[in-house]
Amino acid sequence: MRIAFAGTPGFAARALAAIVDAGHTVALVLTQPDRPAGRGLKRRPSAVSELALARGLPILAPASLRAGTDIAFLAGVINYLLVNDKLQHEYVRNYTNASFIVGEDYRFDDGLFSGYDPAKHRYDPSSWGYELDAKGYAKVDPTFEHPRCVLQVMKRHYARYTPDMVARVCGTPKDKFLKICEMIASTAEPRRAMTMMYALGWTQHSTGTEMIRTAAIVQLLLGNIGIAGGGMNALRGHSNIQGLTDLGLLSNALPGYLTLARDPEQSLEDYFKPRALKPLRPGQMSYWQNYPKFFVSQQKAWWGAAATAENEWAFDYLPKWDKLYDILQAFELMSQGKINGYICQGFNPVGSFPNKKKIVTGLSKLKYLVTIDPLATETAEFWKNHGEFNDVKTADIQTTVFRLPSTCFAEEDGSLTNSGRWLQWHWKGADAPGEGRGDLEIIAGLFLRIRALYQSEGGAFPDPIVNLTWSYKIPGRPAAEEIAMEYNGKALADLVDPKDKTKVLVKAGEQLAGFGQLRDDGSTACGCWIYSGSWTQAGNQMARRDNADPFGVGQTLNWAWAWPANRRILYNRASADPSGKPWDPKRRLMSWNGKSWAGADVPDMRPDAAPEEDVGPFIMTAEGVARLFAPTGLAEGPLPEHYEPFESPLPNNPMHPSNEKARANPAARVFKSDAAEFGSHTDFPYAATSYRLTEHFHYWTKNVLTSAIIQPQQFVEIGEELAKEKGITDGSWVKVSSKRGYIKAVAVVTKRIAQLECDGRKIHTVGLPNHWGFVGLAKQGYLVNTLTPFVGDANTQTPEYKAFIVNIEKA
């Protein structure tokens, strides 16, 4: 049986349908209740509940929890598993760092880990490291008796998250919480599996990264990573958000999850040192050791002959960052008048970024704004007065706005990358209307003009611009096929077999078969190492459409192509026990046949690594095993801890009531002006959360008449107890306000939003569907981000849209 823990029902339903259609037995654990329809329509189940009813699936334990308390809930699950010994013992012993011994300097005291600098709101993680032996390897204790082994550290850390504490923090009734724990714990049995499905309901918090990590720890304790039916499954709400992250469109990222150098890393050696990780245990693969091959091949793809060993492969062509330049940082600088121009491609910041007032203020200080979008957006019309929905003084705004109409996905060729990392090629269905042009053509046009200016006028450092490789057949209109082949990579010289120098593996000019052929000597070019193998010498692998499943476990390896190496389940070596036998023979992914690893998937392991070599299945970590305790990589600490949202209906953090520094995420970045805009629970006593409706797709469907008919009017949701307390009736108009602004909408009074008891207080929640605005075919409404705080996750800076505080009153 598969158990699906669904934290984001709307997105989870689509993934769940595929699991059910594949013939698997499924039961559900829901942490969000049903959703209503629009005004005048009957309330209906959520997308997941609806699917469960239609397919006859049991819903094991529906339960509610207060917005922003998911870590406390999941930490309680961890404590339940540890206290009741509900672990997949051999998996935890052999495939996690549970036995690794943490250094003596590590501490955790009243919500803060060792190494915290309160002035900088930042940690020095050096005290979180392992205890090392004389050879530099991490010490381990397979008996788990050492008081500083990770398992013992975790037991002490999570002992505080008792069922009573979870009920106190989250508001989840103790009996329902324990029922969920019982069902989750049942998957510690190797012949059972559970998958975690999440989306924006976990990411859009100031502790979003740690929420996901807490869930991953649960899965590791149960042995549910790397197996069929397990995993942590991100459910992307947009057709290519996975591709966006793959290709490095974040401010400090490069394609394939490489990263830009920091300011102190002024040489290639300094840059490689913290990234090309050496193994922390004997015999481990630590695949990031190959980082130089990935990076040098990228540089050759971008700058060709201009990237040489002598100039460190054009390392200095790339910027070095002093701080993150994410969307929050950009609009902070914009509001200070430190940014002159902004190119906005495929985004609607006025509707999508927090604190609409600050966003509009920033845009109003620009000299120019360029929007690239197939549809009219609020951002393109931020300067236009739309009455109470956008009450600006147009005459005072001097920003010049250039609107460049682009194509939508159905009007261009290319690939979409889904949540399973499948790259699926699609073909253009129609030409764009009017003056619409493809994004490739628009960006090419901008680049060619900028390059021409540098070529004619020079500049302080024109080299990265004028030397950029641009060898497309039509320079002003690169083809999607050309870009895809560039990402895959090719040989720049004949590549010989390292074991037989007389054998040529790939001839110069040919497409590479995969990232295993990349070199760090300048003989290969590859735009994105994880995409290598997607367009080989044999052609476009992403266009394949063979849905055969020869092993009967949902593995259709000849349908499209998945990164990396067409592997469908990451770390699939963990689906077999240390001797190489499948944990569950009925769901065999991978096993050792005496000579190599083989099975229903592409092995995520050196194919000839015999079990007795003890090569760990988590090949991307230096440890070779998964990290229950993370000594590096996270801003808040090595273990997840509950912190309140920056705006909370509680006066303090129940886990650390006497430590104000541990009330909200101590490592989160907060700009001074935004801290002053945080509301108090005394003025704004109600929890609030934003979400989408089934009929809506981001802001696109504001331009679709049928969607506007189905959901004709903006509304907010409140529970029956709050409605009675405030004298609000179903269908009446209300005003919802935060310290940053207000919106007005119709009230939907519903049973599904329950009053919760948290830390001795009655907590009411206001639900805010996010869709309406002042541009589009739909009836005008207020942008919900008028209310949301300008603060983000400490690791990704994803804004905290899912947990803040408001007041509500009759309008």
Written overview of the protein:
The chain is an alpha/beta fold. The protein is 23% helix and 16% strand. The strands form 12 sheets. A 6-stranded mixed β-sheet has the order 26-28-27-32-25-31. Helix 1 runs parallel beside helix 2 and helix 3 packs across helix 7 (174-185). The longest helix is centred in the middle third of the chain and has 19 residues, at 439-457. The protein is globular.
Topology:
Blueprint: E1 2-6, H1 9-21, E2 26-30, H2 47-55, H3 70-83, H4 89-95, E3 108-109, E4 112-113, E5 116-117, E6 122-123, H5 150-158, H6 163-170, H7 174-185, E7 193-198, H8 200-203, H9 208-222, E8 232-234, H10 241-246, E9 253-254, E10 258-259, H11 268-272, H12 291-303, H13 327-335, E11 341-345, H14 349-352, H15 356-364, E12 368-373, E13 400-405, E14 414-417, E15 422-426, H16 439-457, H17 463-466, H18 480-488, E16 490-491, E17 495-497, E18 500-506, E19 524-525, E20 535-536, E21 539-540, E22 561-562, E23 590-592, E24 597-599, H19 672-675, E25 686-691, H20 705-710, E26 715-719, H21 720-726, E27 733-738, E28 741-750, E29 756-758, E30 761-763, E31 765-769, E32 804-810
Parallel strand pairs: 1-2, 1-7, 7-8, 11-12, 12-13, 25-31, 26-28
Antiparallel strand pairs: 3-4, 5-6, 9-10, 14-15, 15-22, 16-19, 17-18, 20-21, 23-24, 25-32, 27-28, 27-32, 29-30
